[in-house]
Amino acid sequence: MRLFLPIAPPSANRIWRTGRGVTFLSADALAYYKEAKAWTERVDPDIKAVDVRIWIVPIRRGIDCDNRIKPVLDAITKAGVWKDDSIVASVAIKLITPDKKKFPKGATFVEITPVAEKYGKEEDVWTK
After folding, report:
1. Which single residue of 43, 48, 79, 103 could bond 39 by disulfide (Cβ 3.0 to 4.6 Å)?
2. CB 3 within 8 Å of CB 41
C-alpha cells in the first residue's frame, strides 16, 4: 500500500505545545493530521505486522529524519489506515532533497508492506 501527502511532517519536537498550563497539539501537527484524513486505504485487520518505508521531502535541508517518524505513524493511525501502530515491525526513513517548485510544503511518501508478503509466514521473520 502506498500513501502520499503534499506536506512534510512536523518534527516530533513540535507536535505538542504548552500554554497557560495546558498541553495541546501544535498548529503544524493539526494541519498534518488534517491532510492525512485523505488516506482512505485500510490495512487488513488480520495483519499482525507491517514494514513501513517513509520518504520525506522536507521544506528545508538540515532536519533530523528520526524526529519525523512519530508524526507520520501517528497520522496513519489517526487516518484509520490501521488500528494501532503497534503492528509496525520495522521503519525505514529517507530524506529527499527539498524541491520548492514541485513540493512547496514538502511531501510525505509512505509504503506499507505486510511482513508476511515480504518474508513468507510472520513466524519465519526471525529465522531468515
Report:
1. 79
2. yes
Instruction: Give the three-state DSSP class for 32.
Output: helix
Single out the residue of 3, 98, 18, 6 nearest to residue 54, CA to CA: 3
For 72, 102, 115, the CA distances from 124, given in Å and listed in that order, are: 28, 41, 10
pLDDT at 4 over 90: yes
Q: Are 113 and 125 in contact (CB under 8 A)?
A: no
Task: Judge if pTM exceeds 0.90.
Answer: no
Quick one: pLDDT at residue 120? 65
Structural domains of the chain sorted by starting position, each given as residue range(s) with its CATH number in brackets: 2-127 (3.30.1330.70)
